[in-house]
Amino acid sequence: MAEQPTRRTLVLPMDLGSPAQYEQTIFPLSRVRGTGTANQMHQMAGNAERYKDLIHNAKTQYDLLVASRQKMAQNQKSLNPVKMFSAYRSVRLLLEAGKALYTQTRV
To answer: Is there a contact between 30 and 22 (Cβ–Cβ < 8 Å)?
Structure first.
């Protein structure tokens, strides 16, 4: 199984300007309403000191969730007897089909 890349959360307070500065044909939905989520995010990013605890708590919770996801992925799954029998039966049928094909195509 491929190993997942390590990801970290990083919030950069940047002033991206108003949506009116961007080309409307490229960003057609770039309107900010006064009470919208984008406006709140812009205010939070502009005043990082005020929301420092909130950002730290959110980052900590996100990192804990990522760690628990990795731990769950490493845990051994419980054994399901129906799935084990199904896998055994599939392998047995494949072997029988292979033997039959071999005997029919033998010269």
So the answer is: yes
pTM over the 0.70 mark = no
Most confident among 15-29, 30-44, 79-93 (mean pLDDT) = 79-93
pLDDT band at 88 (very low <50, low <70, confident <90, very high): very high
- DSSP string covering 27-78, please? STT----TTSHHHHHHHHHHTTTTTHHHHHHHHHHHHHHHHHHHHHHHSPPP
Burial class (CB in 10 A: 0-12, 13-18, 19+), 102: exposed
